Amino acid sequence: MPIATGNSPETRINTPAQVLFASLVGTAVEFFDFYIYATASILVFPHLFFPKSDPSTAMLASLATFAVAFFARPIGSALFGHFGDRIGRKRTLVLALSTMGVSTFLVGVLPGYSAIGIAAPMLLALCRFGQGIGLGGEWGGAVLLAVENAPPSRRAIYGMFPQLGAPIGFALSGGIFLLLSDWLSNDQFLSWGWRLPFLASAALVLLGLYVRLKITETPVFEEARKHMHPVSVPLFSVFRHHALQVVAGILVCLSTFVLFYLMIVFTLDWGTTELHYSRNTFLVYQLIGTAAFLLTIPIAAWIAERGRRRTMIVISVLIAVFGFALAPLFTLHPLVLLLVGLSLMGLTYGPLGTVVSELFPTPVRYTGSSIAFSTAGILGASLAPYAARWLASHYGLQYVGYYLTASAILTLIGLFMIRETKDETL
Known about the structure:
It contains 18 helices and two strands. The protein has about 425 residues and is mostly helical.
């Protein structure tokens, strides 16, 4: 059935397919941009932007620039959340995607350390900051675009579509780096080949912008705008009236971030350095694991229609148990680890957007859900590859697993703080 977004004669009508594709394509592009940086931070940047350091220091410095985006995310969440809650989801999403796209393209044209010295890593960090600003505004708006257009009994199903952008973006990222590694020599790859994904992202951004410009505002936001004035400063309102929901939302998201960035960044780092797997081999393993990630997202979303909180509690317990098995599975074979870990990632990620967005009322939903998600990114993702490398180097792989288990316990605490929302109206 078409989705009406207003009552005026000129109001256009979006079909569910348009809405769901618009929510998916933007997040796929955003996550593609984000992941090509993550992959390059392991394979390229330590050599080109931090060449004066010893290999371990260069890797840690590169991972530090990777972390910069997560500290920028809450700023982007507050900035874009403010406009998303005041002027609408659609226009704000266009701005967020544009910010991410420009930042990513600029990484592709940056000169290295050998050309401009210390300015090179500083500019790299600045571009990464821009990526974080854009993604801080993207995720919450994309989820709301889907959830606020959904029939009441299908919000978890609709809300999973922007979540599918994560594995699709990662598959595109890993696939293009794998092809470049096959086609180019190592010298060619490090000289100019790594730049191609960053430059090519411009075409994907234009596609995402075209799709989003064709849709209209969500009916839930339009209805709220008819009956109440926009909140003057949504960020202040969120922390004044919904602080408990923010804390709970951060905890609910925490183990998802830790799990994912252990699987895509730490495993690539440890597998290609300490375990001596080739770059191509490990990228293939990650792509196979990403297929499991993609397939389990809709499974969990379907189950969550019968109860969000109960579904997330069961999945979080499984993640806690997986933490104890992380080191033995990595030793057994990295592919086994990635298949199990990324399957769990799909299960927890599928309902997550719906769960967090339903914690907040419409006038501050964009800001509240984005702030919770982005702050969890700082606590769960920005430090995960760095902390995991340090723990594995000093105490052994089993402590990386304990780190994951601890994050899952904190997520369980967050889930016990929230209410069941599947039967509530937005």
